[in-house]
Amino acid sequence: MFPQRLDSTVAYGIARAMMDGFNRHYRLFRAESARAKHRFETADWHAQQRGQRERIEFYDLRVKECVMRLEKEFQASQQPMDVWQQVKLHYIGLLVNHLQPELAETFFNSVTTKILHRTYFQNDFIFVRPAVSTEYIEDEAVGTRPTYRSYYPRRDTLATELQRVVTDFDLHVPFVDLERDIERVHQAMLRHFDHVKLRSNFQLQVLASLFFRNKGAYVVGKIINGFQEVPFALPIVHQRRAQLVIDAALFGEDDLQLLFSFARAYFMVDMAVPSAYVQFLRSLMPRKPRAEFYNALGLAKQGKTLFYRDFLHHMRHSSDRLRIAPGIKGMVMLVFDLPSFPFVFKVIKDHFPHQKDTTREQVRAKYQLVKQHDRVGRMADTLEFSLVAFPRDRFEDELIEELQRFAPSQVEISDRDGDGQLEVILKHCYIERRMIPLNLYLQEAFDTGLDNPRAHQQMAHAVIEYGNAIRDLVSANIFPGDMLWKNFGITRQGKVVFYDYDEIEYLTDCNFRRVPPPRNEEDELSGEVWYAVAKNDVFPETFAPFLLGHPAVREVFLQHHAELLDVVFWQAHKDHILAGHMHDVFPYEQARRFQAPVPAESI
């Protein structure tokens, strides 16, 4: 029971210090996000990526700072539970009229669980459910921007208003030809909404901040005409040195789903009220969970909080059981899922086969590398959890046996809460969006028979997309290591995404070599490697036997991606990256671009 009176001055001091810690965190987070505009204007791409990486570390640093302050000033871990009961109530009072209350609640949870050493979401003194509504929050301070701007064009002023949409962002770089770009957007837009009759509510609503990621800036908004609402995004890129173009016009939920994919790096967006941005974005993509919007905006801890709330809600309203995930079992990760829930859970095994020369710490470092790197739409984002509890009766016995056999150090089965119900507690796990493993997707086509046109198309699409995924990873300075089909999955949008990171390496750390010719007939007939292989040596021509055993797969692969088997391709990209070049990887098809801009590096 929480106290009916708040009589502890220490409790208020702790609550105030925690709020100060959160406010410092969000102030620094927002300042770093705001700097993305200047980096875009000056085409400082390496600084842009560095800023994206470093911002990820902000949260844990601020939590650590806050914990240290609370211990130093209040001996917080030694305070009795009745004081901590009051801390939460004081903190709720401080959330009134706060612009980021949901983020502040998550910060409170992070700090409190560090101090009390209790398991997340099992603690009576944290925010398992939100205490403060995020509805209708706006920054009403003088001179601040609203969440979104509204424009009310007439039929004859639509192009003019579109131009105002772009110029209102006050980019300090001229466009090569803004009027030309606006006319292209105008013509594209007319094809995507019913403009024969403009209704009385006809308007454009556009989020007030640009969305920055890598070498692009994105205008995000929607067209409203009567009952019709059409999401849109306008990518702005550098064409020539210090000149801009609108590169494409994206329309509809599917286009924006790709832009905000879980397999892409986080955006840098200057937001006073994140919940208002999430609410607007959900109106554009209602099928996307709120957790993924917070992740896309760089607020990954809030994304974790919402994800876990969604998961607990789903567990209460479902009855299926957690099982070993379908597909080929991995040598490093034990993977399981709940059939009715669109995510998979991955636990690092305690021991690996001899061919896997790695450690638990190295595997975790690889996953952290992916978290901080540009994922270019080809590497799944992961949520990392510690001490996650599940009801024992929701596990299939076979899965429990696998966990106890391969990862006993990571599993505890106990009645931790003393409520008479056994729980399975995982000390550490990763959670990823579920995809269809590419080897199973291909097998579906083979089982149907490639003489079936749809099955053949499915196979060809998978093989072509697989090669495209490899190319995009290479452009981002990533060598996937284990390139087998089973380590890739296909999303509901038909994109191939990599998700097995234990052998991932920077492309620039690899040594690409040709297989030396056999020295003699014995070498030629030997099933063993006759040449020396160092740790990071890669022989692209050896990929074919593992990947192209099926004749139809081989035919499609060689037609579209034969150069991936040639050391020249890999070495050329490595040299290009070492020379400082950053490749363009667009979150939309090349065919959607208005033109192929001349790279700034060539001007």
UniProtKB/TrEMBL annotation:
Any one GO molecular-function label of the UniProt entry: hydrolase activity
Isocitrate dehydrogenase kinase/phosphatase (AceK) regulatory domain: residues covered: 15-319
This enzyme's EC code(s): 2.7.11.5, 3.1.3.-
Reactions listed under catalytic activity: L-seryl-[isocitrate dehydrogenase] + ATP = O-phospho-L-seryl-[isocitrate dehydrogenase] + ADP + H(+)
Compartments reported by the entry: Cytoplasm
HAMAP family: AceK
Record protein name field: Isocitrate dehydrogenase kinase/phosphatase
Source organism (scientific name): Hydrogenophaga atypica
